[in-house]
Amino acid sequence: MFARLLFLLAVVGATPALAQQAVHVPVEQGGRTLQLAAQLFKPPGAGPSPAVAIFHGCGGPGQNTARMAGLLASWGYVALVVDSFSARRLKDVCGRANWPTQRDAETRALDIDAALAWLAKQSFVVAGRIAFMGYSYGGGVAALRALQRADAAAPSPARAAILVYPDCGLADALGPKLAVRQPTLFAMGALDDWTPVSQCQAAIDRIVQGRDLVETKVYEGAHHSFDALGLPVRYLKDVGNRSKPNDCCGAHYGANQKAWAAFVEDVKTFLARTLAK
């Protein structure tokens, strides 16, 4: 396993800087158009290629989203890391004082729609083979698109969804009966006390249509942000936490290399299956 981890790190480190390109994704909000900053990673060789849109957590885009984008490109996917914050003059919303509300999350879900539409228009993307992927708060926002009200379910604009230690408390607003219209992978840490497995399982248990499309991976010994390589597990006492009364307060987060290596393999296998021709 350790040798495999070193190999994965080498692949990421070898990703050419020229593979990245700064782009902007337009999204309509409140009667005006925001231009979301984004980083585009293209795979080597001629396209078009399948694509994955990536959405960050409460701390904004970071090394984990860039690392995953580099891996995706090395596997032959276009990867688009969307910055939902800078156009809205936000930097970090993890703290209790500016913890995202349900309304904030529902507004941000428009970013997913916009990114999928933007990718579908690009000549280097296969329009029918696009997935989206969200981390933590971004994973909870992605859950608002991956899961639907059973009485209002519609075809999904994406081929697949990946929810990485997602804030599943945001899915409570979708109601008691849910539907899934695309293969969806939940990737979670067994020791996560920020976005706990139990909260996501409660959402999964409400799925009455498409339950067979859901796949769950729970990594033993792993806390929130198990992919934050090099970061020891620590406790943040002042962060908002939707799994606690009144969204307050505190949670552990930090890396678990074994969980991260397993997660990478699970994502690779999932996408190879769901974005295949």
Structural overview:
This protein has helices at 2-13, 63-74, 102-120, 137-146, 197-205, 257-274, and strands at 20-29, 32-41, 49-55, 78-82, 125-135, 147-149, 160-164, 178-180, 184-189, 207-209, 214-219, 234-236, 251-253. An eight-stranded mixed sheet has the order 1-2-4-3-5-7-9-11, sandwiched between helices. Helix 3 (102-120) crosses helix 4 (137-146). The protein has six helices and 13 strands. The longest helix is centred in the middle third of the chain and has 19 residues, at 102-120. Strand 3, helix 2 (63-74) and strand 4 (78-82) form a beta-alpha-beta unit. The protein has a single domain (2-274), classed as 3-Layer(aba) Sandwich (Rossmann fold). It is globular. The protein is an alpha/beta fold.
* CATH H-level superfamily: Alpha/Beta hydrolase fold, catalytic domain
* Low-confidence blocks of residues: 1-18
Mean pLDDT: 92
Q: Quote the CATH topology.
A: Rossmann fold
Please state the second-level CATH architecture: 3-Layer(aba) Sandwich
Helix content: 25-40%
C-alpha termini separation: 30 Å
CATH class category name: Alpha Beta
Work out the count of structural domains: 1
Question: What labels describe this entry?
Answer:
single chain, Rossmann fold, globular, 27% strand, alpha/beta, 277 residues, 8-stranded mixed beta sheet, disordered N terminus, 3-stranded mixed beta sheet
